[in-house]
Here is the input.
Amino acid sequence: MRKLHILLLLFLCSEYSYSQLFFDLGLKGHLSTTWLINANVFEDTEIIHKPSMGHGIGGKLGINFNEDYQIVGEVLVANFNQKFSFSESSVIKSKLIEMNSLDIPILFRSNSSDGGYFEIGTQYSMVKQVNETLANFDTKGQQENSKDFDKSYFSALIGFGGYMLGWDNFGISLGFRFTYSFIDLVSAGGTGSPWSYKEMVTSFPSESYKATNAFSAGLVLEFNYDLGYFAKSPCGNRRQFILFN
Here is the structure.
C-alpha cells in the first residue's frame, strides 16, 4: 500500500498534472455606426444628424481561467465620425467631425459550449486628433480642433457574438459591440472657433448646457489563435510555457 501511495504522488507531480492558465491571441476589426449624443443638439430642429460610420483595427490578448471564462485586453486604432447638415436660406450646409483615437478595452468574457460569447467591461480612449470639415459655411475647409475635446475618456462596453468557423487552434468569430461614454467629451479648454462643434453646443443658454457623449454600435470580426499555457507542478515551483500543438 505504501508503494502505491508513492507511485500516486509521483504521478500527481508529473508534467501531466500541471495547473494551467490558457492564453490566446487575436486580430480584430470593427465597423460601427457612431453618434455624438447631446440633448440640446438633438432637440434643435435646424440641426440634422446624418448616419455616420467609424471603424477600428487592432489586436487582443485573452487570459483564460478555463474554457468558460476569460479576461481580455485589446488595443485598437480607431476612427469615430459624426456628420451634420444645416438648412439656412435654402442653402444646405454640412459638417463632418472626425475623431482618431487609440482605444484600450478591458473585458470580462464568458464563452458557451456552443461557440457563443458575451463580453462586458470598460474602454479607455486616448484621443489623438479631431478634425472638423465644413462645407457651404462662411468658414470652409478642414479645421484641427483637438483642443476642443478631452484628450481621453472612458466608455462602458457590452458585446455578444459567436464562433463562425476554424480549425485546430485557429477560429473566426463575428459579433456585435456597443459602447457609450459617460463623461462630457467637450473640454473646458479650446477656442470654440466659429462653426466648430464646441461653439455649437455652447451657443445654447449656459444654464441649459448639456454634456456630449459618444455612442457606437456595430459588427466585430475576430481572428483568434489559441497560443498556449503556463503550467506549474503541484509539487514544486517550476513553471513552463507550453505551446498548443
